[in-house]
């Protein structure tokens, strides 16, 4: 699996992104990091902006809502095989992590790591969730938000696909940027490996 991990939206490595796109351009757009929000119109506009950006790269984008697969991991695993790209948007990383666990997407994704013809892309929460731990991110995202109701316990473990945490929106024109320094201080104090990204910056793993 290849990775295009952006601090915010598409980021500035557009030419590089073009080279990472596999032959199968079918793209699963995962929106669940915003499941906590009641701003339906705002979510719709944000999703359409994200999707239109992806379509500019020739990607055929389909919204893949993990809520439709809660308790249906085998069905989701079969569905995921249709896609060459998985794109996970930003929002609340703890909400996203819950959705990934309830649908089984977390383990499905781990099983795809050795596949060279799949691209995982995303931004903000969509890249933070790949870390070994989500500790520290609660200083930005509310860890107690639970829009699903059937899982009360906070999931502090990330997917562990990366061996470090990503801290987005560092020194950026973003509403959460003021909180980022506290996250970095926390990670330094607790000896958590991390990389801080300014909006526009991207981590690429081939």
Structural features, described:
The chain has 206 residues and is of the alpha/beta class. The protein has a single domain, classed as Rossmann fold. Helices cover 32% and strands 16% of the residues. The chain has helices at residues 14-20, 40-55, 73-80, 93-103, 105-110, 125-128, 177-189, and strands spanning 2-6, 26-30, 60-63, 85-88, 119-123, 165-167, 194-196, 202-205. The strands form two sheets. Strands 3-2-4-5-1-8 form a six-stranded mixed beta sheet. The protein has a two-stranded parallel ribbon with strand order 6-7.
Give start-end ranges of low-pLDDT stretches.
Answer: none
- Strand order in space, largest sheet: 3-2-4-5-1-8
Terminal residue distance? 7 Å
CATH superfamily: Class I glutamine amidotransferase (GATase) domain
In the CATH hierarchy, what is the class? Alpha Beta
Write the layout of secondary structure elements.
Elements: E1 2-6, H1 14-20, E2 26-30, H2 40-55, E3 60-63, H3 73-80, E4 85-88, H4 93-103, H5 105-110, E5 119-123, H6 125-128, E6 165-167, H7 177-189, E7 194-196, E8 202-205
Parallel strand pairs: 1-5, 2-3, 2-4, 4-5, 6-7
Antiparallel strand pairs: 1-8
Quick take:
The chain is of the alpha/beta class and 206 residues long. Helix content is 32%, strand content 16%.
What are the salient characteristics of this protein?
Rossmann fold; 6-stranded mixed beta sheet; alpha/beta; 206 residues; two-stranded parallel ribbon
């Amino acid at each position: 699996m290849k990775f295009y991990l952006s601090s915010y939206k598409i980021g500035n490595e557009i030419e590089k992104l073009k080279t990472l796109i596999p032959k199968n351009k079918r793209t699963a757009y995962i929106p669940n990091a915003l499941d906590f929000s009641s701003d339906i119109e705002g979510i719709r506009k944000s999703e359409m902006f994200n999707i239109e950006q992806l379509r500019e790269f020739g990607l055929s984008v389909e919204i893949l809502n993990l809520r439709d697969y809660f308790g249906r991991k085998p069905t989701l695993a079969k569905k995921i095989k249709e896609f060459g790209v998985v794109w996970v948007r930003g929002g609340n990383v703890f909400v996203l992590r819950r959705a990934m666990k309830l649908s089984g997407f977390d383990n499905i994704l781990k099983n795809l790591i050795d596949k060279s013809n799949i691209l995982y892309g995303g931004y903000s929460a969509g890249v933070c969730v790949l870390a070994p731990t989500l500790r520290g991110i609660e200083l930005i995202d509310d860890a107690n938000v639970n829009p699903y109701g059937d899982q009360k316990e906070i999931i502090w473990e990330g997917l562990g696909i990366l061996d470090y945490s990503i801290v987005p929106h560092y020194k950026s024109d973003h509403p959460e940027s003021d909180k980022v320094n506290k996250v970095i201080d926390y990670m330094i104090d607790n000896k958590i490996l991390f990389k801080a990204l300014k909006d526009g910056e991207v981590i690429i793993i081939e």
